[in-house]
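Board notes (copied after class):
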Amino acid sequence: MLVLGIGLGAAAFSALDDDATVVREVTVSSAQDAVRTTNLSIGQVYASASEGVVEIRATSDGFGGPSGTAQGSGFVIDTDGHVVTNQHVVAGASTIRVSLWDGSAHEAKLVGTDPSTDLAVLRIDAPRSALHPLVLGDSSAVRVGDTVLALGSPFGLEGTLTSGIVSALHREMTAPNNYTITDTIQTDAAINHGNSGGPLLDARGRVIGVNSQIESESGGSEGVGFAIPSDTVRSITRQLIATGEVEHAYLGITMVAVPNGVAITNVRSGTPAEAAGLRPATNSELVDGQERPTGGDVIVTFAGKDVTSPSELQSAVDARQPGDTVALTVIRDGKRETVEVTLGVRP
């Protein structure tokens, strides 16, 4: 698992972390439709998307935590005034202000947050003419080597554009509540303090991710940044706008990859995994210099699809809803067995 620094807020406002906004799919103009189907120059992407990106300042009054102001980025997702940003940018904030492309500043209402994916939705009361929603793309179609662009307000410099490529896919980040965010996008586009919550765009101007973390020894951009994929953003923002909260499906195991699947190393008490009778490893053995768990179940399929890594299994669980019943194929005592599990709600 990658060890990453979550705080991307401007250094001068380090009491809270960065903020940013994201956009959801809406009815768009013919110009925006063209952005979806035709590759653009870097300048054209900037022209098409920059008015949908916002700067966020979140202030804490100090009750129950440190006082201060965090600065981050975000983007508009609809003409109702919804804005998406990182949860860590607005965590603990008593006042949140969003600045639009035209220089106008608006006090924002916090619609909801999801610490498990580090996403938050804000709402501002602004004229529709000032709101320019961005279009969410399909992050499952992103490939290593694709051109990407990051828009935001690093160090408070609003409207800053950087470019790069997709460096890797299916990376993992640690969320503010210490759960794992899977399938994140790694990019070498420069991301600095203040970029958090801003959009990562493809060559057609569509949002394919929300810039969230960097890995850096110096604290500055070293070309290793990570974005929450747009498919996750789409699902989470819809739930937050509808109900103000998100419920994640939950299995209740810890696991490691083994050559034939995912070995269960622990089954947490009172979880769906325990109720279904899934068995954790009871011992371990040394194979080619690596310790491997033995004596427990090895999960090889989830709902009929092969799983070869903990991140694949986590993504498969995340794609389900609490209350869903799914069939797992496990190798138990050398034999393949089917176990049905009714997923719970992540605590």
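Comment from the instructor: The chain has two domains: 11-243, 249-345. Residues 11-243 form a domain with the Thrombin, subunit H fold (CATH 2.40.10.120).
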